[in-house]
Design a protein that fits this description.
Enolase-like, domain 1; 7 helices
Length: about 180
């Protein structure tokens, strides 16, 4: 296949993804496609929970000596805990995000990610541990690993001002993660 044809195919795929995201009735698919689930949810005043799990706590990352990276999961703050978005920074990010894409497209709970069997040691274990952190079942406790594990709940208590009221282990009204 020539380079020109490959470029056209990539452009067509991106255009189709944008069209699906733009006209989809499922809010979570649109949030996933925009890759800004957290900021988009705040803009739409959707109460959310955000969890960050650093690769510094993942056995495979420690073994391979590449601990720079993290995953970030955004879920709706509701009893079902729908998965709204996930971001992975670091090695094997594309394979880590795969199962999350399936869960989002089916509008399922984030806890469905916990039931997937992950190999050990693997970077994808970070997804399972981050989900367990939402449920309070993680082996690693956020109170012990303050810099490596972070979780935050953003609700909108003041409908007149529309300002988010953040709850969690940071005092900033809008979470920032580096």
């Amino acid at each position: 296949m020539s380079d020109e044809v490959e470029v056209v195919v990539v452009v067509v795929v991106v255009v189709v993804m944008v069209i699906v995201a733009r006209f989809s009735r499922c809010r979570c698919v649109r949030l996933w496609m925009m890759r800004t689930a957290e900021s988009e949810a705040i803009k739409r005043k959707i109460p959310i929970k955000v969890g960050v799990y650093s690769f510094e706590l993942v056995n495979r990352a420690i073994i391979s000596d590449y601990t720079k990276g993290f995953i970030k999961i955004v879920v709706a703050d509701e009893p079902k805990c729908r998965l709204l978005g996930m971001r992975a920074i670091g090695p094997e990010a594309s394979s880590i995000i795969g199962p999350a894409q399936l869960i989002i497209s089916q509008d399922r709970s984030v806890f469905d990610l916990e039931s997937i069997l992950y190999p050990h040691p693997a970077l994808s274990e970070s997804v399972q541990e981050c989900v367990r952190m939402f449920a309070g079942r993680s082996v690693m406790k956020p109170s012990c690993f303050v810099n490596e594990l972070r979780r935050k709940t953003i609700t909108f208590d003041s409908p007149s001002t529309g300002a988010p009221a953040a709850k969690g282990n940071k005092s900033s009204p809008v979470p920032t993660y580096s």
